Amino acid sequence: MSSMNDVLAASREFYSALNAMANGDAAAMAAAWATGDNVTAQHPIGGRDVGHDQVIASFARVAEIAVGGGIRLEDQVIDAGSGMAVETGTEIGTLVIAGRDATIHHRVTNVYRMEGDRWKLAHHHTDISPGLMEILEDLTEVA
Known about the structure:
alpha+beta
């Protein structure tokens, strides 16, 4: 079984990639995620993405319109077994989308699994973010 430090490292890798995405760069996101068709993400903007390619593409679409911000995980709790770990907490921060600020304050559940000799994110699920939803609805109406 990997140490708790290894799960924490995987979490830091994901949140580092999430913050890069918030600043317009989704390149690091692919390395944080497990591969395959059974990874999933349920985002603060609604919907569910299934499969590595679809999940990474969804983060890339956000990066295209994200121009700043930062997100941190607070109240982190991890329960790790030999091949799977569950992390819960609260994501706190701001995200600037198309020049508009959205406050981030929602519960999150992340599921990690061993892939080879490293922990990788297999599922990310957050509460819906009304602020992000409003910005995206406004962008859709303008388009």
